[in-house]
Amino acid sequence: MRPIVVLVLLTLAAPALADKTSGSILAYDRLANVIVLTDKTHWQLNPQTLVPADLAAGDKVTIDFKSDGDNGAGKIFSLTRKE
């Protein structure tokens, strides 16, 4: 019983254990769902990731994602524009 409770709690806490990065957008390719930040990092967005319709170069954003260890970023949970 206890392993099931622990598994459920870890599953629910997964977004809370996410990593974050922030930066300014250098380029955004809407067709390929790729964002390039000014620090030259490339972020491949999931088709399910909600992106503001008027997102453009120069906007400051925060990306919440799950790290995939040495393989870089795993799933991206959200992208939010910083005002």
What does this structure look like?
The structure is a single chain. The chain has 83 residues and is mostly beta strands. It has one domain: Copper binding periplasmic protein CusF (OB fold (Dihydrolipoamide Acetyltransferase, E2P), Beta Barrel), CATH 2.40.50. 14% of the residues lie in helices and 43% in strands. The protein is built from 1 helix and 5 strands. It has a 5-stranded antiparallel β-sheet with strand order 3-2-1-4-5, with no helix packed on it. The model has no long low-confidence stretch (mean pLDDT 82). Keywords: Signal.
Quick take:
Keywords: Signal. The protein is mainly β.
- Reading off the top of the CATH hierarchy, the class is best stated as Mainly Beta
Helical content stands at 10-25%
Based on DSSP secondary structure assignment, what is the total number of beta strands?
5
Give the CATH architecture.
Beta Barrel
Order of strands, widest sheet = 3-2-1-4-5
How far do the termini sit from each other? 46 Å
Structural class: mainly beta
How many distinct domains? 1
Uncertain residue segments: none
Main beta sheet:
5 strands, antiparallel
Question: What is the CATH topology?
Answer: OB fold (Dihydrolipoamide Acetyltransferase, E2P)
Instruction: Say what oligomer this is.
Output: single chain
One letter per element, helices H and strands E, the order comes to HEEEEE
**The named CATH superfamily:** Copper binding periplasmic protein CusF
Signal peptide: 1-18
Keywords: Signal
Protein name: DUF1344 domain-containing protein
